[in-house]
Automatic annotation (TrEMBL):
Full protein name: DUF4352 domain-containing protein
Keywords annotated in UniProt: Signal
Organism, as annotated: Streptomyces bullii
Domain DUF4352: 53-177
Start-end of Pro residues biased regions: 37-47
Pfam families: DUF4352
Stretch list, region Disordered: 27-52
Signal peptide: 1-19
Cross-referenced InterPro entries: DUF4352, Immunoprotect_excell_Ig-like
PROSITE patterns linked to this entry: PROKAR_LIPOPROTEIN
Length: 186
Protein backbone atom coordinates (compact mmCIF):
# COMPACT_ATOMS: atom_id res chain seq x y z
CA UNK A 1 0.00 0.00 0.00
CA UNK A 2 2.86 2.41 0.84
CA UNK A 3 4.47 1.67 -2.52
CA UNK A 4 1.28 2.61 -4.40
CA UNK A 5 0.93 5.83 -2.37
CA UNK A 6 4.57 6.76 -3.01
CA UNK A 7 4.22 6.11 -6.77
CA UNK A 8 0.99 8.11 -6.94
CA UNK A 9 2.65 11.01 -5.09
CA UNK A 10 5.63 11.02 -7.48
CA UNK A 11 3.32 10.97 -10.51
CA UNK A 12 1.21 13.80 -9.07
CA UNK A 13 4.22 16.05 -8.36
CA UNK A 14 5.79 15.27 -11.76
CA UNK A 15 2.54 16.23 -13.47
CA UNK A 16 2.34 19.49 -11.51
CA UNK A 17 5.96 20.39 -12.27
CA UNK A 18 5.46 19.80 -16.01
CA UNK A 19 2.14 21.63 -16.05
CA UNK A 20 3.52 24.69 -14.24
CA UNK A 21 6.35 25.44 -16.65
CA UNK A 22 5.42 28.32 -18.92
CA UNK A 23 6.72 30.93 -21.36
CA UNK A 24 9.12 33.74 -20.60
CA UNK A 25 9.85 37.29 -21.69
CA UNK A 26 13.30 36.45 -23.04
CA UNK A 27 14.45 37.42 -26.57
CA UNK A 28 13.62 35.73 -29.86
CA UNK A 29 15.38 35.94 -33.20
CA UNK A 30 13.98 35.61 -36.73
CA UNK A 31 15.11 36.50 -40.23
CA UNK A 32 14.11 40.03 -41.17
CA UNK A 33 12.57 38.62 -44.34
CA UNK A 34 10.23 36.27 -42.43
CA UNK A 35 6.54 37.17 -42.70
CA UNK A 36 4.65 37.52 -39.43
CA UNK A 37 2.23 34.72 -38.55
CA UNK A 38 -1.51 35.33 -38.98
CA UNK A 39 -2.30 34.40 -35.38
CA UNK A 40 -0.85 36.01 -32.24
CA UNK A 41 2.62 34.76 -31.42
CA UNK A 42 3.38 32.95 -28.16
CA UNK A 43 5.74 34.41 -25.57
CA UNK A 44 9.31 34.80 -26.84
CA UNK A 45 11.80 31.99 -26.32
CA UNK A 46 14.98 32.52 -24.31
CA UNK A 47 17.41 32.08 -27.19
CA UNK A 48 17.71 32.62 -30.92
CA UNK A 49 16.64 29.79 -33.15
CA UNK A 50 19.31 27.22 -33.89
CA UNK A 51 19.34 28.37 -37.51
CA UNK A 52 22.66 29.52 -38.92
CA UNK A 53 22.33 32.43 -41.32
CA UNK A 54 24.45 33.32 -44.36
CA UNK A 55 26.75 36.34 -44.46
CA UNK A 56 24.61 39.25 -45.59
CA UNK A 57 21.44 38.06 -43.82
CA UNK A 58 19.79 40.51 -41.43
CA UNK A 59 18.30 38.98 -38.29
CA UNK A 60 15.44 40.48 -36.23
CA UNK A 61 15.95 40.29 -32.47
CA UNK A 62 13.07 40.94 -30.04
CA UNK A 63 13.63 41.41 -26.33
CA UNK A 64 11.50 42.61 -23.45
CA UNK A 65 13.15 46.02 -23.90
CA UNK A 66 12.49 46.35 -27.65
CA UNK A 67 13.50 45.21 -31.12
CA UNK A 68 16.71 45.53 -33.10
CA UNK A 69 18.40 43.90 -36.10
CA UNK A 70 21.90 42.53 -36.51
CA UNK A 71 23.77 41.57 -39.67
CA UNK A 72 27.16 40.06 -40.41
CA UNK A 73 27.60 41.51 -43.89
CA UNK A 74 31.04 40.42 -45.13
CA UNK A 75 34.29 38.76 -44.03
CA UNK A 76 37.71 39.79 -45.39
CA UNK A 77 41.08 38.32 -44.41
CA UNK A 78 43.33 39.40 -47.29
CA UNK A 79 45.16 42.63 -47.97
CA UNK A 80 44.95 44.15 -44.50
CA UNK A 81 48.39 45.42 -43.48
CA UNK A 82 49.96 44.56 -40.12
CA UNK A 83 49.42 47.84 -38.31
CA UNK A 84 52.21 48.56 -35.82
CA UNK A 85 53.60 45.07 -36.48
CA UNK A 86 51.46 43.48 -33.76
CA UNK A 87 50.84 40.12 -35.40
CA UNK A 88 52.76 36.93 -34.74
CA UNK A 89 54.25 35.13 -37.75
CA UNK A 90 51.33 32.68 -38.00
CA UNK A 91 48.61 35.38 -37.83
CA UNK A 92 46.89 37.86 -40.12
CA UNK A 93 44.22 40.54 -39.74
CA UNK A 94 40.60 39.86 -40.62
CA UNK A 95 37.74 42.35 -40.86
CA UNK A 96 34.10 41.48 -40.34
CA UNK A 97 31.66 44.10 -41.61
CA UNK A 98 28.63 44.24 -39.30
CA UNK A 99 25.53 46.37 -38.83
CA UNK A 100 23.14 46.76 -35.87
CA UNK A 101 19.92 48.82 -36.07
CA UNK A 102 17.67 49.89 -33.20
CA UNK A 103 14.06 49.39 -34.33
CA UNK A 104 12.13 50.67 -31.31
CA UNK A 105 14.09 50.13 -28.12
CA UNK A 106 15.35 52.86 -25.86
CA UNK A 107 18.89 53.77 -26.80
CA UNK A 108 21.44 51.01 -26.19
CA UNK A 109 25.18 50.64 -26.48
CA UNK A 110 27.11 48.67 -29.08
CA UNK A 111 30.61 47.24 -28.95
CA UNK A 112 32.81 45.15 -31.25
CA UNK A 113 33.47 42.75 -28.36
CA UNK A 114 30.12 40.92 -28.69
CA UNK A 115 31.28 39.61 -32.09
CA UNK A 116 33.57 36.56 -32.39
CA UNK A 117 34.72 33.95 -34.92
CA UNK A 118 34.34 30.19 -34.39
CA UNK A 119 36.57 27.60 -36.07
CA UNK A 120 35.77 23.95 -36.86
CA UNK A 121 38.23 22.71 -34.20
CA UNK A 122 36.34 24.59 -31.46
CA UNK A 123 38.71 27.58 -31.26
CA UNK A 124 37.12 31.02 -30.93
CA UNK A 125 38.74 34.33 -31.78
CA UNK A 126 37.50 37.43 -30.01
CA UNK A 127 37.42 40.88 -31.55
CA UNK A 128 40.26 43.31 -31.02
CA UNK A 129 40.12 47.05 -31.37
CA UNK A 130 42.79 48.86 -33.33
CA UNK A 131 43.03 52.22 -34.98
CA UNK A 132 45.13 53.25 -37.92
CA UNK A 133 44.76 54.69 -41.39
CA UNK A 134 45.67 51.38 -43.04
CA UNK A 135 42.70 49.50 -41.54
CA UNK A 136 39.51 48.97 -43.53
CA UNK A 137 37.08 51.84 -42.91
CA UNK A 138 34.70 52.45 -41.32
CA UNK A 139 35.73 50.83 -38.06
CA UNK A 140 32.92 49.63 -35.79
CA UNK A 141 32.71 51.96 -32.79
CA UNK A 142 34.26 50.90 -29.52
CA UNK A 143 31.37 52.22 -27.46
CA UNK A 144 28.45 54.03 -29.09
CA UNK A 145 24.81 54.64 -28.18
CA UNK A 146 22.19 53.80 -30.80
CA UNK A 147 18.88 55.66 -30.49
CA UNK A 148 15.57 54.28 -31.80
CA UNK A 149 15.51 54.32 -35.59
CA UNK A 150 19.31 54.59 -35.94
CA UNK A 151 21.97 52.11 -37.16
CA UNK A 152 25.68 51.51 -36.61
CA UNK A 153 27.83 49.83 -39.27
CA UNK A 154 31.54 49.16 -39.46
CA UNK A 155 34.40 46.68 -39.52
CA UNK A 156 35.24 44.58 -36.46
CA UNK A 157 38.89 43.46 -36.45
CA UNK A 158 40.31 40.06 -35.49
CA UNK A 159 43.80 38.55 -35.26
CA UNK A 160 43.27 35.16 -36.96
CA UNK A 161 45.47 32.23 -37.99
CA UNK A 162 46.99 32.57 -41.47
CA UNK A 163 45.84 29.03 -42.30
CA UNK A 164 42.16 28.30 -42.56
CA UNK A 165 39.01 30.31 -42.30
CA UNK A 166 36.45 30.58 -39.50
CA UNK A 167 33.42 28.34 -39.79
CA UNK A 168 30.94 30.73 -38.14
CA UNK A 169 30.45 34.33 -37.05
CA UNK A 170 28.88 34.70 -33.59
CA UNK A 171 26.94 37.67 -32.21
CA UNK A 172 26.54 37.37 -28.41
CA UNK A 173 25.10 40.46 -26.72
CA UNK A 174 24.06 40.09 -23.09
CA UNK A 175 20.34 40.10 -23.99
CA UNK A 176 20.66 36.68 -25.72
CA UNK A 177 21.13 33.30 -24.02
CA UNK A 178 22.79 31.86 -27.15
CA UNK A 179 24.60 33.64 -29.96
CA UNK A 180 23.14 34.37 -33.37
CA UNK A 181 25.29 32.57 -35.97
CA UNK A 182 26.23 33.20 -39.60
CA UNK A 183 28.28 30.80 -41.74
CA UNK A 184 31.62 32.28 -42.74
CA UNK A 185 32.20 29.89 -45.64
CA UNK A 186 32.90 31.35 -49.05
Amino acid sequence: MRTRTAIATVILFTGLAVGCSGGSDDPTVAKATDTPPASPTPSPTPSPSQETYKLGDTVDVSTADGKFTAAALAYKDRGIPDVAELLQADQKWAALEVKVCNKDAEGFGVSPFVWSLAYADGARVEATHMTGNELPRPLYPLDAKVKAGDCVRGNVLFQVPKAGRPERVLYSPDVLDEPVEWTAAK
